[in-house]
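Posting this for the archive.
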Amino acid sequence: MEYFSWLEARIRPGRIRAYQSLLEREKPVLVMGRGKSGTRLVSWAISNLGVALGTAENLPAGDINHRPFRQVVKKLAQRNLGTNSLKGIHQGDLAWFQGAVFRVWRMLAQQGELALGWGWKWPETYLITPYVFKTFPNARFIHVLRDGRDVAFKNHLTDDSNRSLGKALLTRLGALGLPRYLQSAFSWQFQVERYMKFSRHIPVEQRFELKYEELCGDPVGTMERIAAFLGVPMTEACRTYVLRELTATQISQFSKQDPEKIAEVENAIGETLSALGYTLTAAG
């Protein structure tokens, strides 16, 4: 652990160059996606491939089990809602992020779980992609995309006006006074479009675009492709997990909602849905 102690001693704001060259050689696996898009299932499935994502039984959502890191990401996301380019990165925030992610890296290394790779899932990371890519130019990004109509009828902290990040995001979108399902729809649209715009800067060989609907339709086949992308073998544990947890019934859940509300959602984000290949209903 001498190496990690040496690195930690240099994790200080204003001294980015002292450790950035070490972090940038890493190739973490990042599960990216707006909360309630299926990132939980993908995180656990990848963990069952043997990749260390810091998952823990006491966190069924599959989030990285490092609360200080999660808090840093949330605060950085709130402070950087207007930043979606490498040029817009604030150096102090970059140092803060890198200091936090180093501690995650060290935690996983101390647990001896890095043999097949490491990374994390924490949905708010979706909002600070430039910071992640600046720190880890060789990272592997698994982008989980789900039909925005399904997401619209599920609650997440990024569309919750009672949470500081949710309030800041909704204020930015001018959506504070809207019904929750429309707030959620606009939150989904903002985050998806934001990520996809920045992802053009990420080499295509480092990106895996995953539609939740495809994962539900072919759980094993999809995870075999993800395993190949990550360069790890498919496992029986992963196969068992996805067959148990994923079914086609999880697709198009929005259809059970009030048709008038569905129409409102489609009118709000229909252009984005269509661009992503989702078919609008007659009500839209």
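Residues 1-11 have pLDDT under 50 and may be disordered. The longest strand covers residues 140-145.
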